[in-house]
Amino acid sequence: xxxxxxxxxxxxxxxxxxxxxxxxxxxxxxxxxxxxxxxxxxxxxxxxxxxxxxxxxxxxxxxxxxxxxxxxxxxxxxxxxxxxxxxxxxxxxxxxxxxxxxxxxxxxxxxxxxxxxxxxxxxxxxxxxxxxxxxxxxxxxxxxxxxxxxxxxxxxxxxxxxxxxxxxxxxxxxxxxxxxxxxxxxxxxxxxxxxxxxxxxxxxxxxxxxxxxxxxxxxxxxxxxxxxxxxxxxxxxxxxxxxxxxxxxxxxxxxxxxxxxxxx
Length: 264
What we know:
Elements lengths: L1 H4 L7 H11 L6 E3 L9 E3 L5 H5 L4 H10 L5 E5 L5 H10 L4 E5 L3 H13 L5 E4 L2 E2 L4 E6 L8 E2 L7 E5 L1 H7 L7 E4 L5 H6 L2 H6 L3 E5 L3 H13 L3 E4 L14 E5 L2 H9 L2
Parallel strand pairs: 3-4, 3-10, 4-5, 6-9, 10-11
Antiparallel strand pairs: 1-2, 7-8, 7-9, 11-13, 12-13
């Protein structure tokens, strides 16, 4: 029912009318997630779009995450924002697993930490940093929404720490991930470029959000050169350019993992 209501775009007349009651909910209200991968979790309404606490957000990605994550492993949420997938990953890996949530933007980190606290996520580590090609300080451009901020070559007065994955794991090898979810608003190829050792030696599974043609081409080149096979979230193998695929699944074990991805 919730999914059918939210299929209407907010800018449409019907979509606007359907969302009027949602606008009356105080932003500080702590709601219980109604459905989906985080059903039953606590969520602060004003930290992101209403689809997160309604449980209708990115339904296909939610299904893929629930199929891929197993108990006891180390998984990463890169570009964690307010922590929607951090909550899900924490639940799926269980008490014996570990979640590393990477988020550079201070507002998001505050929201993320609150969700970690109110949901009692004892298996989760929050790292207030971006991931990139190399370890450095970088300029960060704040977006119109807290979900659209990004690293920038433009001069700004806001700088954030950037870590390469390989540098981070040289210091914390026990946190080597089995699965990485990456959604970093156009810096995805830089994240992969800073993970050559990880990709070569460990080959973690990757769920990747792509932002634009340049990132599609760069990420496809990096992943295929490391022996990865790419799939749509529906489980179909991607044989050509990543046209019309803004979210993909990459694995070094295509046969077994494709079957796993298609499971219902």
